[in-house]
Amino acid sequence: MRLAAATGFSFVGLRVIAVTPNERVYDLSPGSPLLAATQQALKETALYVLDTEFLQVNADTTREAWLPALEAAGALGAKTFTIAAGDDNIAPLTDTIGAMVDDARDFGVTPALEPISYRSVHSIPQAAAIARDSGGKVVADTLHMARFGATPEELTDVTDVLGVLQLCDSPLQRPADLDGLVTESRSLRLAPGEGEQNLLTFVNALDSNVPLSVETPNDGEVASRGDAGWINHLYNTTQALLEKIEEAV
Asked: Rounded to an integer, what distance in angstroms lies between the CA atom of residue 9 and that of residue 212?
């Protein structure tokens, strides 16, 4: 967080619940020392937490699964909590997300559904329909959008429920299988402007009030540049991309 603030970013997204069994767990539960330290860092840097993550939601997911995450998100002042769909049964899934939305209001947080190229909900219109029916929002990610063939027009059509657009770049060539898609998503993303996507068309499709974030995990780049170097590089490439938009106006 301090590196992000020093580089020039204005907000952060934080993971408050582990996604995979092997990843490091950060205890941001209310009362934990790490939460207190994080809240102090937010005060000192003037950063704020826009988004927290991450839970895969099925039709039978219960409150016990999401309440601790929502409590942590609320303690951080987050606006949204990102979820993904793990169930093809859309009607009961929507009902479950609606129940989560109801609980989240108590913490000042809104669940936001991210359509993911290798999950059951993998299009912008599909995610937006569920968000509207459940009272939630949508998180759009340019990597997944490229992999499931989203269009800029689809983004424009969901402005009413779009919580954030996550930027990253990638080659045009789609990974050949599920393992490739997962690996690319979690550890091989490219800095904005350094791949083959036309990110400008997606950014230009947005309402100016929609926040832009940078979602670019890349293990090799972090190993090569270090945390500070990679964060600085991401800031610079994203600024360069946005300057192209300003020049075109």
From this structure: 11
The predicted model scores a pTM of: 0.93
Cβ-based neighbours of 74, under 8 Å, separated by 6 or more: 106, 107, 108, 109
| Angle between helix 90-105 and 124-134 (nearest 10) | 50
pLDDT tens track for 205-248: 998 899 999 999 999 999 999 999 999 999 999 999 999 876 65
State in words which class domain 2-248 has.
Answer: alpha beta
Token pair for 201: 């068309």
The conformational region for residue 45 under phi > 0 = left, psi -120 to 50 = alpha, else beta, is alpha
Contacts of residue 34, Cβ cutoff 8 Å, sequence gap at least 6: 26, 27, 28
Domains of the chain by residue range: 2-248
